[in-house]
Specification:
mainly alpha; Arc Repressor Mutant, subunit A; Tetracycline Repressor, domain 2; 2 domains; 10 helices; 0% strand; globular; Homeodomain-like_sf
């Protein structure tokens, strides 16, 4: 019995976290992010304000609750690339899979949620921070994967270009969602856009960080 308790406690924590997140998202969409308070969320979820802040250090994290996966995603993809695969090729393939799967991490969110983000100065600012954090994580991984010297600017330059490409494509997905297009249309549009973007990067980055 004792051995199962940690698992049960973890499950309860996950359920509580999801409950808080669900109520927060509903309130943000109904009232607007700026207008909704932590107290409102705690009341809706029937938990203490302290419980909300224990699970979510920042109010923005209640809305962008996949931020950890988002910021680590590009770096993880590059670190997991196959033999003979470049960083660009790995990221290109991963993006195409994500677009086909309507993955929220690349911008698929539904119109109410997307509009909530673009209407909130706080959330748009936080999203910019997350894009920057994602680029930094990618640069660190590229530095390690290519055994670059600490003062070598190349990994950071590459991460900036690859990060900018993903930032642009995320923005396209968000824009199309706000305009009311359905997911199949958005997926087809951003896939074509991604092909163009990655093709433009291919001459410069196609042979960079190929796993041997």
């Amino acid at each position: 019995m004792t051995s199962t308790n940690p698992g049960l406690r973890e499950l309860k924590k996950q359920e509580t976290r999801q409950l808080i997140s669900d109520h927060a998202t509903r309130l943000f969409i109904e009232r607007g992010f700026e207008e909704t308070t932590i107290a409102d969320i705690a009341e809706a979820a029937r938990v203490a304000k302290k419980t909300v802040t224990n699970y979510f250090a920042r109010k923005e994290d209640l809305a962008l609750d996949q931020h950890e996966e988002f910021t680590a995603g590009l770096a993880r993809t590059v670190a997991a690339r196959g033999v003979g695969e470049s960083a660009l090729a790995a990221l290109r393939a991963a993006f195409m899979r994500a677009a086909a799967g309507h993955d929220p991490v690349i911008g698929f969110s539904g119109q109410p949620f997307a509009r909530m983000i673009v209407d909130s100065p706080t959330l748009t600012a936080r999203l910019r921070e997350l894009h920057e954090t994602r680029e930094e994580a990618l640069a660190a991984t590229l530095t390690a994967e290519t055994a670059a010297e600490p003062d070598d600017i190349t990994p950071r330059a590459v991460a900036t270009q690859l990060g900018a490409a993903h930032r642009l494509l995320f923005g396209e997905a968000l824009r199309l969602t706000v305009e009311g297009h359905d997911n199949p249309h958005i997926a087809a549009t951003v896939t074509r856009a991604a092909e163009r973007v990655f093709d433009l990067l291919e001459p410069t980055l196609g042979s960079y960080a190929i796993r041997t």
